Amino acid sequence: MKKYIVILSFAFLMGCSEEFLSVDNPNALTPSAFPTSAADLESILIGVYGTQHGYGLYGHTILAKGYHVWDHTMNLAWQGTQTWINQAQNDTRPSDEFLKDIWKDSYKGVIRANSLLESVEGFRSGEVKPATAVTGDQLDKFEGQALYLRAWFYYNLIIIFGEDMIINGQGRDAMGVPIVLKTANSVSETFVGRASVGEVWDQIKDDLQKSLALMGTTTWSGADRFKINQWGLKGLLGKVYALTGDWETAKGYLKDVIDNSGKSLVPFNVYKNMYNSDPANEFNSESLIEIALEDDNVGRSNDETSLGSWYASIVAPSIVINDLPLASSWSNEFIHEKNLARFGFTQDHYFQDGVVEPRASNVRPGYVAEALALRADPLNSPVDPRLYIAGFQPYADSIMADGKKTAISHFADGVEVNRPAWSFRKYVNVTERQRLIRDSGANFYLLRLADVYLLYAEASIETGDIATGLEYINKVHRRAYNLPVDAPHPSDYVTLTDATKAVGDPELGNNVLRYERFVELFGEGQKWTDTRRWKNGSAEAAIYQTVRGGTINWEDTDYAQPIPTLEIENNVAINFSDQNPGY
Length: 583
Prior knowledge:
By secondary structure, the protein is mainly alpha-helical. It is built from 20 helices and twelve strands. It has helices at residues 18-21, 38-51, 63-70, 82-88, 97-125, 136-161, 197-215, 230-243, 247-260, 268-271, 311-314, 338-342, 367-376, 387-390, 449-462, 466-480, 512-520, 527-534, 537-544, 565-570; strands spanning 74-76, 287-291, 318-321, 324-327, 333-335, 391-392, 398-401, 404-407, 423-424, 444-448, 546-547, 550-551. The strands form six sheets. The protein has a two-stranded antiparallel ribbon. A two-stranded antiparallel ribbon has the order 2-10. A two-stranded antiparallel sheet has the order 3-4. A hairpin with a 2-residue loop joins β3 (318-321) and β4 (324-327).
């Protein structure tokens, strides 16, 4: 049992002053009553980690109703929520409930991390009696993890709500998000204005560097494997420096992880299944930061007390039942059809011409044989094999449902029969239909070695070492084709502008770095960050053009999501004039 999810109650209040907490009720919490032991601090820490998959974050919203819609990883089967359609059209509104949930739970995590930091300080200062109940080394580890977690929540906040990214030294003075470093003792202390983009990134770096110093060489095992260690911290620091354009510093952190962490890309046969709720593949040799989850048949992800995530229900595959498509859970999102060609897929549609009803019996003769033939020899196929890791091909793939092998269908919920509507494969359970597992236990990879390799490649290229950059791009590329990672192969890229599988694609067709990041990290929530820092949102929108529900309406102000209306109304330190431009 992974236990870091469940103890949350009043952890976020623990840093408040004695005056704020002391009341006449003898059962109320006071600083002298809690925390008084390492076990109490661990309970608070569990609550902070658990917030990572709260409703607004990886428990429900941040991928399926955030990153995946803004960057057009997905298209919408569900047409009953106009705000969701608006987001998919790059037309998000400040009043959007999904944005409010992301903002709220991110700051909930910040507050909880601050509470833990103040509790640690209480032990260090002797304010908590007996202060000797926790050793100095234990306090270091609690503090280090709290700093990492605070940095992680701010990382998501600045990526989503920051007015700009830092590119070529520009953008530091743009509007960021409020920086909150202590718990509030009064309502007035909750009113905090927007810091600059540069100040927020500096705070993230400072927290991560302090965390690294405190964590030292600590390793975790067993039920504690989800906790941060030096290699996850160094990898994330490398990524943060890369995203803010400090390529030399990024290279140092990333190369340290590559050379000294003992991490390696998993073999292809593990890679293709490591997203799908198999405990044998969790915390593998490639994983650097991972959210640990468990299947939860009764949870509904309304908060982080659930053991799993509802993401898999939102993107659940559609399956064939009695010849017709059936949603295996909510099944609201399918892979945007324009993404198929970006993986090199050009096979003709699975239904015969003129079909008006999406029945399995209407699949055209020879289609399945063609599909399997495209996979038989990946090196000589026009299709990148990572497409079949990212998605389920209708009628050519299957999952276990109700104890039997069941074909994937055309995506349900009224999707037009002439639209190639594939189901998502990453982070879904392939052994049960999703409706039987309300909250899926498929772990989320927040950072893995393939991402580090590609970031190191980019840092090398940006600092003039193209040969090294190409080699690390090729390492990731080779693994995708089940080749020895470190051995040169005739299929290697030779230049940064070699042709990729995305033939004719103006963004990916002759840009091997961007192509490899797209296909390798597809469906993992990284593409929106890349879109923001590469400033190619307009070009990307021109490729996708439409979603079910309407035309994509790209404006360059769409890189930053709006500060939620409720925050501006309730926080007197943020005025409507402080809203991100365009909203």
